[in-house]
Amino acid sequence: MKKSTSRLETFLVYAVLGAAAFIVFLPYVWMILAAFKTPEEISLYPPQWLPAVWRWQNFVDAWNKAPFGKFFINSIIVSVSVVSIQLVTSTLAAYAFAFFKFPAKNILFILYLSIMMVPTQVTLIPNFITIKNLNLLNTYGALIIPFIASGFGTFLIRQQFLTIPTDLIDAAHIDGASTPRILWSVLIPLSRPTLVTFATIAAMWNWNDFFWPLIITSSTEMRTMPLGLAVFTQGEAGTEWHLLMAAALFTALPIIILFLFAQKQFIQGIANSGLKG
């Protein structure tokens, strides 16, 4: 009886999860199929899922509609720079909050995490004024500097550090290892899944960011991939849906590939970081 109940519960769980996954994945299936259609096929009602002819030319036309080569380079530079800097700052801050002892440490940690509770819109104007006063408008610095620290990254990596036995740290100290050496040779190798998890999330967020680059840049030369999608909604004939879907597909493709390569470490990092401490 218990086995039958357990199997039924397992079936129901998988059924609900499968239905949810189908609902979430359905718009992506439509986007992929629409990227190969003609404008007329996209507007058909009732909808026609499969295109009559698979139009690969849509991707060429979409890529040539705007300087997407430059947009792609800009997105790569900004995303790689932000993620690299955040990994360094978050790891150092996490080490301090996990292992150092100093007055009001817990209070400072809560204050540090409070930045995650502040909406982006609240800091938009102060950040813009700061960047403008530094004469950094329309530069890579404007797209990178405001994001060199991450409260979420610090929290995630700190939680992982707290799962590492302090005996390892003490043994390294006894062997004469310095703090940077312990961090580099002991903590970082043991925390690789969590670091990969944070890097993947940060890369996804920065790659897809639309609002800040829209506000801080005005020249085409400094635009990023998400901003390039706007050119397909500005034509006299209205939105070019077939080209927009093609552009959306090759815009999302780098992040999809990144996740596919990092998914094992990503899942392990989420499981390991836990909620200890």
Please describe what this structure looks like.
It is a single chain. By secondary structure, this protein is mainly α. It has one domain (about 65-275): MetI-like fold, CATH 1.10.3720.10. It is built from 14 helices and no strands. It has helices at about 1-35, 40, 55-65, 70-100, 105-115, 120-135, 140-145, 150-160, 165-175, 180-190, 190-210, 210-215, 225-230, 240-275. Helix 4 (about 70-100) packs across helix 8 (about 150-160). The longest helix has about 35 residues, at about 1-35. The chain is globular and about 70 Å long. The protein starts with a helix and ends with a helix.
- What is the SS-derived class? mainly alpha
What is the N-to-C succession of helices and strands?
HHHHHHHHHHHHHH
Helicity, as a percent range: over 70%
Principal-axes geometry comes out as globular
Q: Supply the number of helical segments.
A: 14
Question: Would you identify the CATH H-level superfamily?
Answer: MetI-like
Just give the CATH class: Mainly Alpha
What brief labels describe this structure?
single chain, 277 residues, mainly alpha, MetI-like fold, 14 helices, 0% strand
What does this entry show, briefly?
This protein is 72% helix and 0% strand.
Secondary-structure map:
Blueprint (H helix, E strand, L loop, with lengths): L1 H33 L4 H4 L14 H9 L2 H32 L5 H9 L6 H14 L6 H5 L6 H12 L3 H9 L4 H12 L1 H17 L2 H6 L8 H4 L12 H33 L4
